[in-house]
């Protein structure tokens, strides 16, 4: 490798490979466009927020979600046909959960939307399993000393999503209004709602 | 021995840059790399496990100096050479 990681250099190399593969008849640019579009269709943190709001307002759904996340989110039309398992982990007044993929970047994309760079960074992956309390504080989430923190390390087969605590004084809010309160970071566990 | 990607618990990577940048791609070439991966995998030229292995077996210095999608691109090139789809150096010869 040249050590030159400028954007122009890599952009040129990618273009060259695409041309080379087209010349060899291995692929077409139009096919790439389709795949790029498909990779993003339907991936949004609004989906995860909908799941959370349903769990906050429907105790039976919440029980099903915690027992078998994959099956429960399929009730709402998410992760259909996926070979991955989803495990939903619930925050309480004494426990907090946060997710990571120490080996790379596994993440429930359809429910959380595209991941931010920090989720894929060596700094987050290496540190959140060793000193989660300090890392969460860097995100502005200061947890009481008595709160137990569990860090969930994702794998190729199992993805995690956090079920945050429902904020106080929200009894009068409907499912849609509740969903609007839920952020992507709350679903990762680096924020509260 | 653990591979370089197995960073959980290691020290020395510094503070987390928490800048929120969840737009899917930061440059057009990143999207093209995602497209390349999808197309080559769909055609059965290599599978997900081979792709993951190609990233994880990158030499540590290259792994650490590459961005996320640069790793993907390097892994794709490695596999295309290994599978005989492109010849070693063929990508560079197209230069100029």
Automatic annotation (TrEMBL), chain A:
Its EC number is 4.2.1.84. It comes from Streptomyces guryensis. It holds the Pfam family NHase_alpha. Fe(3+) binds at residues 101, 104-106. The gene is nthA. Keywords: Iron, Lyase, Metal-binding. The keyword Coiled coil does not apply. It is an enzyme of class 4 (lyase). It catalyses: an aliphatic primary amide = an aliphatic nitrile + H2O. Belongs to the nitrile hydratase subunit alpha family. InterPro entries: CN_Hdrase_a/SCN_Hdrase_g_sf (IPR036648), CN_Hdrtase_a/SCN_Hdrlase_g (IPR004232), CN_Hdrtase_asu/SCN_Hdrlase_gsu (IPR023900), Nitrile_hydratase_asu (IPR018141). Residues 10-191 form the Nitrile hydratase alpha/Thiocyanate hydrolase gamma domain. This is nitrile hydratase. GO terms for molecular function: nitrile hydratase activity; transition metal ion binding.
């Amino acid at each position: 490798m040249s050590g030159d990681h400028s954007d122009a250099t890599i952009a040129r190399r990618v273009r060259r490979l695409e041309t080379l593969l087209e010349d060899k008849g291995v692929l077409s640019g139009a096919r790439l466009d389709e795949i790029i579009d498909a990779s993003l269709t339907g991936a949004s943190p609004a989906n995860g927020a909908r799941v959370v709001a349903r769990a906050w307002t429907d105790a039976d759904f919440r029980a099903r979600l915690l027992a078998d996340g994959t099956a429960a989110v399929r009730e709402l039309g998410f992760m259909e046909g996926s070979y991955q398992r989803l495990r939903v982990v619930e925050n309480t007044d004494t426990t907090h959960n946060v997710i990571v993929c120490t080996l790379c970047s596994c993440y429930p994309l359809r429910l959380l939307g595209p991941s931010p760079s920090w989720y894929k960074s060596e700094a987050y992956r290496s540190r959140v399993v060793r000193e989660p309390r300090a890392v969460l504080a860097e995100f502005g989430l200061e947890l009481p000393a008595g709160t137990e923190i569990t860090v969930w390390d994702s794998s190729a087969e199992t993805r995690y999503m956090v079920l945050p605590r429902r904020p106080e004084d929200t009894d009068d809010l409907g499912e849609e209004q509740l969903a609007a309160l839920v952020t992507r970071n709350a679903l990762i566990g680096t924020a509260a709602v | 021995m653990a591979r370089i990607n197995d960073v959980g618990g290691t020290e020395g990577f510094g503070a987390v840059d928490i800048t929120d940048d969840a737009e899917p791609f930061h440059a057009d070439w990143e999207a093209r790399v995602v497209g390349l991966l999808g197309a080559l995998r769909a055609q059965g030229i290599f599978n997900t496990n081979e792709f993951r292995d190609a990233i994880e077996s990158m030499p540590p210095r290259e792994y650490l100096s590459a961005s996320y999608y640069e790793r993907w691109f390097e892994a794709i090139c490695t596999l295309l050479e290994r599978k005989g789809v492109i010849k070693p150096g063929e990508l560079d010869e197209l230069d100029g």
